[in-house]
Design goal:
The protein is mainly alpha-helical and 127 residues long. Helix content is 80%, strand content 0%. The protein is built from 6 helices and no strands. The longest helix is centred in the middle third of the chain and has 25 residues, at 67-91. The protein is globular.
């Protein structure tokens, strides 16, 4: 097994905790307030984000085993920015909601590649 280094492991743990806290503060109150009230696409998204939040907490304890969580985090944010936010920005501009999501996505797209152990990912998942 490739040596990752303590600093990289702590950065990974910090990223998982950052995601856990961020989703806990932004998504969980809304998701809890909607429980049992309705069932639409927003409740599905909230449930998925709560699952993602809990998997991120698990990543704080098992940072290398949960790397697919961070890889998914990076991928969906790149896709959302490229396929949804950028065309909207170029056409009509971003509304307030899209600006907030874009800001959160840009933070993730900047920070996640910094903490990911790319050599480990390539050797583990692509060799």
């Amino acid at each position: 097994m490739e040596d990752i280094g303590k600093v990289k492991l702590y950065l990974l743990r910090a990223m998982y905790i950052f995601i856990f806290v961020g989703l806990g503060l932004s998504n969980t109150p809304e998701a809890i307030s909607e429980m049992g009230v309705s069932t639409d696409s927003y409740t599905v998204i909230n449930a998925m984000l709560m699952g993602f939040m809990l998997m991120s907490l698990l990543g704080a304890f098992y940072p290398l085993k949960m790397l697919p969580i961070l890889m998914f985090e990076l991928l969906w944010k790149i896709l959302w920015l490229a396929l949804f936010a950028l065309p909207m920005y170029l056409n009509a501009g971003l509304d307030e909601y899209a600006m907030g999501v874009a800001f959160a996505c840009i933070i993730g797209v900047v920070l996640t590649p910094i903490v990911l152990p790319w050599h480990y990912i390539i050797n583990t998942y692509f060799n």
